[in-house]
Amino acid sequence: MLSSSCSDALKVEGEGMMRRNSTLVCVPIIAESVGEMVTDMGKAKGLGADLVEIRLDYLKTFNHNEDLKCLVKECPLPTLFSYRPKWAGGQYDSDEKNRLDALRLAMDLGADYVDVELQVAREFISSIEGKKPEKLKVIVSSYNFEETPSVEAIGNLVAAMQATGADIVKIATTCLDITDVARTFQIAVHSQVPSGCEELAHVGKVPLIGLGLGERGLISRILSAKFGGYLTYGMLEPGTVSAPSQPTIKDLIHLYNFRQIGPDTKVFGVISKPVSHSKSPKLYNEVFKSVGFDGVYAHLLVDDIQKFFQTYSSMDFAGFSVGIPHKEAALKCCDEVDPVAKSIGAINCIIRRPADGKLFGFNTDYVGAISAIEEGLKGSHNNNGKNTTSGSALAGRLFVVIGAGGASKALAYGAKQRGARVVIANRTYDRARELADTVGGDALSLDDLPNIPPEDGMILANTTSIGMQPKVDDTPISKHALRSYSLVFDAIYTPRVTRLLREAAECGVTVVSGLEMFIGQAYEQFEKFTGLPAPKELFRKVMENHS
């Protein structure tokens, strides 16, 4: 189980508020010329960086004395110099003495930090003994591009790095699973306040930089502020990446509200695979900040959802949105499930109950989607007076659902509850038949969908990922077949207008975007996450700004 660490509150320059952690934000400067580096340093300062890492190995030409003097003199921020060799994931591939001489010269000329690899750290630190300026800190770094070792192995590694005389220890490991990051958090917490863990008993107190490489390691960079990391890295702008899955400094500071993350900040996120397309972090983090709620919301690329919950079991990890393909499997991970979600057989929202830490599952998909479709029918010229005593415009209509996964179950359940006649169309007929039997509907294979007999007022709802970024040219059904429908709904919202919706609109059919479902289900999730009423106008304004 992970626990929080303490951090000092620092003043955020120019923002008139207290920052709630002491973790520094560092921007790697990876330009190919000194002039470009100087320009980028100014940009980094303007974006709010605390320091810059000057990657000397990216320079195409490098005059040690002249260029280092210029870089130190012209930099408006504290400087961290690194000269990464190819064997440590960098660009430099020449004489080793020349490389270390450059770092020693950077130290002499006024660098604030130098970063050296564990393999050469003892030699380097010995060579500067008695010459090291008081302000200089030596970062000793280790990279593992294959995996994230066990806690015990990482502990042994950190102890070995401390023994070199390091001022700061940096470990970067490849995350094959998002649960690998938990080991880095455990080491980070122990390095500040010894935890009593036997595996880490030999690890002393030392400032630590712990980074998870790859998309599954993203939370290591965001939550370093919560778990007491010395610094984190944010790239200057998209495309200027010095390590896999680095967020931009703009996203760190403004999307994730990095400076306001503290030891008591609750962690939320969207569990999905793929997950990077999700706009949920943009929505929730902006709303959290606006209402003053102490939470941070992140993308969580999860392969094994049961393993995820077994690993991140502390109260710090407070709530989750659940996306494709985990909506059904997530139900089995919960201690309790809302009766409606149980009837649907899928959930899209989990909260960790503060009273006892148990996981409680809900389904807000069906409310968001069905409400959006009903609103679309109200404004449709194809409504045809379908409202009945049930009060729903869906009553009596043929409601065709494409897909048989968790979102499909939610829509089929909601449509049936509103009095619609449900048909499930899926690539695998057996899956369609299984869901149809569950909700009391009919089934057919996706290939047979164009042959369905047309009738007035038909509704088509796509709940699959067909047409989602990046495969935006895909569609689950031909344009010709869309003419039979009164309304077409697509659960996808990236892009907002999918090929399916575009072609339906060209046929004169009313269309409803998945963005409407997304906003509708998010209201209820926000209230479950925070215990606060959802600011609906703010939700819609945020999503309009990001669409």
From TrEMBL:
Q: Name one GO biological process term.
A: chorismate biosynthetic process
The UniProt record lists the Shikimate dehydrogenase substrate binding N-terminal domain at 270-350
Q: Where is the SDH C-terminal domain?
A: 514-543
| UniProt-listed Pfam families | DHquinase_I, SDH_C, Shikimate_DH, Shikimate_dh_N
Which is one GO molecular function term here? 3-dehydroquinate dehydratase activity
Q: Which domain of life is it from?
A: Eukaryota
| Annotated HAMAP family | AroD (MF_00214), Shikimate_DH_AroE (MF_00222)
Q: What is this protein called?
A: Bifunctional 3-dehydroquinate dehydratase/shikimate dehydrogenase, chloroplastic-like isoform X2
